[in-house]
Write a structure and sequence with these properties.
By secondary structure, this protein is α+β, with helices and mostly antiparallel strands. It has helices at 2-29, 139-145, and strands spanning 31-39, 50-53, 59-61, 67-72, 76-83, 90-96, 102-108, 133-138, 161-164, 174-177, 180-181, 185-189, 192-193, 214-221, 235-241. The protein has a 5-stranded mixed β-sheet. The protein is elongated.
Length: 258
Amino acid sequence: MKHTVKIFKTVAPISLFLALAGNSQAMAANVIIEGRVIDKDTREPLPSATVVVQGTAKGVVTDADGKFRLVVSDEGSLNLKASYISYRPESLTAQATTQKRNYVEFLLSQDNAMSSQIVVLADRAKERETPVASSKISKEQIKNQLGSQDIPLVLNTTPSVYSTVQGGGAGDARINVRGFDQRHMGILINGIPINDMENGWVYWSNWDGLGDITSSIQMQRGLSAVNLAVPAIGGTMERYYRSYGYGVRLKPEAGGRQ
């Protein structure tokens, strides 16, 4: 029993020494590369830029100050590449060694390449082609029937539509389609929705006077052909405008308000 205790006391320090030695060798094999990614012109840091070792899966992301810390397992020459959105990527070669601090700095230039033009298309139902119940109000109808009223009032001549000013003044119009109020309608101007983002309401006082430049209105009842996230359960009203030149036009009007 005494011999066993003596052997254990002798082997334990040796094992501990070998474990520490092996751990220190493993730590010594790791090489740390530090650096920064900045804008070449302004010298401002570029946060969340990507720095990778080309040809491998190793990579890091820069912090809020544009700094990064990359750990590699071997010494030698490494090909690093930094990239950032809207900037041209940059590559450089770094000599990784445990004998000194490994620091690299990337200077990225903005990429001002021209992108292709963006075209905004409105989803307008076509007669006898699109399976949607719709009605069209022409420029001539608007000119003859609207007068100085709010735009929704000209739609009273279309099926399943009821609009009124509810005793208010200009800009206080309300419209219902198939029993749904305008909070459940998609109101678009040249394909762009104008419904309030919080409750879907439309404040016609913000669009007062646009009836004079409206070229046409299409009222789509029920689920429409519009590929937009608009509250179009009741229907969708699309208004199309055209630009006018400078000038003065007088328009006499007589009659009562609906």
